[in-house]
Amino acid sequence: MRLGLQLLCGLLLIFAPAAGRAEI
């Protein structure tokens, strides 16, 4: 479960700025 959370956090850090720019 820890691994899943780590992956999720990583994806969030990568996609958060992109989503903010696209204003999805």
Poorly predicted sequence stretches spanning 5 or more consecutive residues: none
Strand content: under 5%
| Largest sheet descriptor | none
Order of helices and strands: H
Terminus-to-terminus distance: 28 Å
> How many strands?
0
Please state the structural category: mainly alpha
Specify Rg, calculated over alpha carbons: 10 Å
User: Mean of residue pLDDT?
Assistant: 82
Q: Quick one: overall form?
A: rod-shaped
> What count of helical segments does DSSP give?
1
Helix content: over 70%
GO molecular function, one term: kinase activity
Keywords: Kinase, Transferase
Protein name: Putative sensor kinase protein
Overview in brief:
By secondary structure, this protein is mostly helical. The protein has one helix at 2-22. The protein has one helix and no strands.
Protein described:
The chain has 24 residues and is mainly alpha-helical. It is built from 1 helix and no strands. The protein is rod-shaped and about 30 Å long. The protein starts with a helix and ends with a helix. The relative contact order is 0.15. The model has no long low-confidence stretch (mean pLDDT 82). Keywords: Kinase, Transferase.
